[in-house]
Amino acid sequence: MLPTGETDADDADATRRLETRTDEGVDAPEAGVLAPGTLVGHYRVVARIGSGGMGAIYRAEQLQPVRRTVALKLLRGRLSTRQRAYFEIERQTLAQMQHPAIAQIFDAGTTEDGVPWFAMEFIEGSPITEVARDLSLDQRLALLARVCDAIQHAHQKGVVHRDLKPGNILVTRVDGEWLPKIIDFGIATAAARAGLADAAVEGPVDMAGTPEYMSPEQLEGRLASIDTRSDVYALGVVLYELIVGDRPGIASQSGRTASSTRSGPLTAPSQRLRSRRLPTGAASPRRGRLRELDRVVLTAMAHDRNDRYPSAIALADELRRYLAHLPLQAMPATPGYLLRRFARRHRLWLASGAAVLLTLVGGLVLSLHAFNQARIQRGVAEARQHELEQVVAFQQAMLSDIDVMDMGRRLVGHVRDQLSRRSERDTVLQVEQLPGILDGPSLARAILVESVLKRAESIIGQRFETQPALAADLLQSVGEVYHAIGQYDEAVAALQSVLEQRVALPQPDLESVVDAQVALANSLERSGQFDAAEAMASEAVATVERLPLDSSRHIAATMVRAQVARSKIEYGKARQWYEKALDAALRIHPADHPEVARARQQYALSLHLDGASDQARPQFEQVLSVQRGQDGNWQQLVGVLVNYAALLADTGDVAAALELEREAYALNRQHLGADHPLTLMILNNMGMSMMEAGDPVEAMAALEEAAEGRARVLGPEHPHTLRSRASLARALVRLDRHDQALAIYSDVYTMRRRILGPGSLDTYRVGRSLADLLKRMGRHEQMLSLTREMHASLVQTQGPWAEDTIDVAIQTARAMVDIGRPDDAIRRLRELLDAASAQSVEAGDERYALAVALYELYRGQGRDADADDVRRRHLRPLLETDGEQLAPRLRRLRETVLRVPDATASAP
After folding, report:
1. Which of 120, 417, 695, 863 could form a Cys-Cys staple with 858, CB 3.0–4.6 A?
2. Which alpha helices (H) appear in 19-133, and where do they start and end?
3. Which residues does the annotation place in the binding site for ATP?
4. Predicted confidence band at 190 (pLDDT cuts at 50, 70, 90)?
5. Binding site: residue ranges?
6. Using CA of residue 581, residue 583, residue 587, residue 589, what is the dihedral sign?
7. How much is the mean pLDDT over the chain?
8. Which residues are annotated as catalytic?
9. What is the pLDDT of residues 575-594, one digit of tens each?
10. Which residues are involved in binding ATP (predicted)?
């Protein structure tokens, strides 16, 4: 094997670089015609395997860092420098798609002359319409439903295909099963966004898409109207072709031509099939069933996009309902239609019933069988009755021995504790004042724990020692009550015992094991034990894979795995897990189901935290609208209010955020009390919003109460307690109370390093705030020491080119300038920028961050020539790109450069 980056003599002789410089008299490749052996990036062309409207496709060999066969697509047209910069950004979106039915995009780039290319997974398959000739109609529809699942995955990533057609839906056979693979996903979108389909492109290009499969809005060039429903239209055309064997508007085998899909009404599939049989291998369904498929096709291909299925997953659900003989959403819900669907689904049962009525012998056999089953069921019932009797005895023991005097004594003690924390403690209180002063839910929670739940645990351990399955059921109920009232440490202890008992059974019930794992992972996460929670959530995900697909337990396991990732500030991972949870919920529930609403709002929050706030806002608004229309589900409403408020606050709409937070706080305090951990979390958020809204006095009161409450309820070292204290320190900085803020920040940073580790994002964030405060206070040497320490930790945990790592490196350089060492700062940034340029793929956008920091530093030191060199060599693609087309971080960097006084460099 040769070392990376080297080739043997044969490779060198057989390889030549792609040259397309027209200014030297060499013509651009026509439709990307490349000879075998041509190098494009790290890929060597082997043979041409096809071409289309967007360009030519080749089988190629990747040379490094690994060797493998890929499909290389060279697009038509060249990109200008501005378009090339945007194309560089757009390809990152395409690389994020990970779905078994989508051909993965490994790499993308442009040649030196601006010809764009993509390297994709090489698929050896046939177009779906060719494979369909040997499949039954039901098999074709099931196959297309799987295609819809993949389309939905990409749509949730914000990518529209724009060129769906049989040639881009390849089918392969794996272990006897037909599996689809969609190719060219997002390439048409990337091409359009990068400018390949507009007049600014250098050279001729074609419209992205294939006319026979393009939606009306796409065919008419109404680019602003193209969205996910345009892909639904194309799927409708493919569905038409799978049913009939021809596309709409193409002459049939009988010689007649269907009406145009755009100039006149669409000819329904049943009309096309009326005078001829289905293609080879398919059985013709009954006329009623064909009319159902007509409705599906006509809905998917509706001229007005608002009349189509709203999403690809909605079309997939419709196809699966058809295959399961369930009523279709597109059909009128008449009594006759619903009855026929019922009869179809239960035809065997109905036929058996008729046979019983006609045959005496059959009736006798069934009677004997029923007698035997009844005897079996009686035994089960007797065993169950025995269990129920034991549960009743347990409940009686719980209630009969309650010590009312002890409960009263405890109640008085808790009342005294609550009053001692109030300023009115020296005042003689009137009875009518008590409801407004005492926190009833918190009192009830304390009494419930001490006088009921603790006793329940004791009785379960004594009376059900020989019945571990029943003991686990009872104890899990106790653990879940602990969790619901915010007693997370007690919940963890109870649920850990439940899981041990379930796993130790001779024949463990996997569903019960998953329930215990999910419940325990939830409580571990709430108690701040994030690593243990991650391990338990991963176990739950692994266990649930052994259960039948698409159960509510799949949603629960995926949701808790996502929640742990979010708590660990791994927002990219959290987004992926929440997306899986939402997909699972949509597969088994209608869009307005509570499980879907819960998954959608958590997915929306993960979008916001991962930097996609624009995508998150409509998701939140949809869920909030649904929740406000439902009575009684206040917990779900509180969750939406809190998470949507976080988005609004982070995007600058503080007044609207505070309004939602006040509503959530009132609801949660009313139902769960002021000391519940969620109530305290909302109070902390309210305090930060109040500070942003310019109300420091009320904000400080809220933040101090939240920090004190969390320390009392969760403990002084709980991650949420530390976050409250960090919020309090931030407010103190805003009030110029720097010494108090410094003491809190230093304490929180020390504890986070000890508890969470120096590389934790929580540790980094409070360290960053501490460094900013030290700079504000003029303690530059301390700031430099701190940022160096943080940078070393981040290099080890996140890698040298992570955004946080580079931000701290830049902060360190600025600290050097502050203490009079600008040359050291310049040298350090120069070294990092050179290294990032050499590792452009790994460094990504952080090259621009380093270049902007160095540019600012050169300008500040009066070294204008060096600044111009950085601007020309490293920042020109960024400056020549329209700021509205850039991601928020790149847009901010671009604006920073444009704000720096520039006396010598030309405007971009």
Report:
1. 863
2. 81-95, 128-132
3. 73
4. low
5. 73
6. positive
7. 76
8. 163
9. 899 888 888 888 888 877 77
10. 73
